[in-house]
Design goal:
Elements (H helix, E strand, L loop, with lengths): L22 E4 L14 H12 L3 E4 L9 H4 L7 E4 L4 E4 L5 E4 L4 H13 L5 E4 L8 E5 L6 H9 L4 E4 L4 H4 L2 E9 H15 L3 E8 L4 E8 L4 H12 L6 E5 L5 H6 L4 E2 L5 H6 L2 E2 L7 H11 L4
Parallel strand pairs: 1-2, 1-12, 7-8, 12-13, 13-14
Antiparallel strand pairs: 3-4, 4-5, 6-7, 6-9, 9-11, 10-11
Length: 300
């Protein structure tokens, strides 16, 4: 197990807080950052105030740590964070993986065959102890989608193409997925449910700029809420004291299950209904508004 770099204020100690919520956990895309990967200065300041008040501030994102580190650097966060929609816990200071939850290798092989037979290049997000740090491997079953190509370029993520991933790779896949145009999505997700059922957990995330869905598959018990619970256990904090803030379908489990949660004002109505409170949109520093409400001590 990699050592955790902790300089967390009052992470496991009693502190003179005037409120009960000790862990603020933020999603990234659409919550802390916009499409240009920019943070609001008001959000940065508010999260710094939260830390000064004794709160722990962390991240819970669908991105891998490699796709997030440069973005969150201005926040000066330390300690663990949740990545890959709960499949990994990583050290925010060093990027080291502290916990990883891979998909069953037989299921990975069957999923590659399933998506490959449909003519789609399959994206594997792999993280192995012998070569630490998540990386993408793409199968050669089909052409790379324009949305994937832009993502790799924008996030400076190298991608290796493999015709037939070996057993070592198949045993260390944290996320597997494809990118499909919207008209194809409903039929593929229905087939995925029918053939794999409860053996997996999967999401269809919409990428509006490309009018496509990113279909992401995880181990059956992986989502942002289970990832947040694991984070709380690592920090020795009751999960009822966690305050998640998010905006998309992958945030639903943590927004629904948390005692106190905030959906962004730019989130879809069904996301807002799942949260306990709705804050301002990302463009109007909604994270800062939520943090100030938490620090006020007036929320239940």
């Amino acid at each position: 197990m990699t050592a955790l770099h902790t300089d967390i204020p009052s992470a496991t100690k009693e502190s003179p807080l005037n409120h009960n919520h000790r862990l603020i956990v933020c999603d990234l895309d659409g919550t802390l950052i916009n499409r240009e990967h920019k943070l609001n200065s008001a959000d940065i300041d508010a999260l710094a105030q939260a830390r000064a008040a004794g709160c722990i501030v962390s991240i819970c994102t669908g991105r891998s740590i490699r796709e997030a580190l440069d973005i969150i650097k201005p926040l000066n966060l330390v300690g663990p964070g949740v990545f890959i929609t709960g499949a990994a816990i990583c050290d925010l200071a060093t990027g080291a993986t502290l916990h990883r939850q891979s998909i069953d290798p037989t299921t990975v092989r069957n999923l590659i065959d399933f998506f490959g037979d449909l003519g789609h290049a399959v994206l594997l997000l792999v993280d192995t102890s012998d070569k630490p740090g998540p990386r993408y491997i793409m199968t050669s079953h089909g052409p790379i989608h324009a949305a994937s190509e832009e993502w790799f370029i924008r996030n400076k993520m190298p991608t290796q193409i493999m015709d037939d991933p070996d057993a070592h790779i198949l045993s260390n896949v944290l996320r597997l997925g494809i990118v499909v145009d919207l008209p194809q999505s409903a039929d593929i997700t229905a087939q995925l449910t029918s053939q794999f059922g409860s053996h997996i957990n999967f999401l269809a995330l919409r990428a509006p700029a490309f009018e496509c869905h990113v279909i992401e598959v995880f181990a059956q018990d992986v989502d942002k809420w289970t990832g947040l619970q694991r984070l709380c256990k690592l920090l020795n904090i009751d999960s009822r004291l966690a305050v998640p803030i998010g905006d998309d379908v992958n945030d639903l489990p943590m927004l629904r299950n948390a005692t106190l949660s905030f959906a962004m004002g730019n989130a879809a109505p069904e996301i807002q209904r799942a949260a306990k409170h709705v804050t301002r949109p990302q463009s109007q520093a909604g994270v800062a508004a939520a943090v100030h409400q938490v620090l006020s001590g007036k929320l239940p």
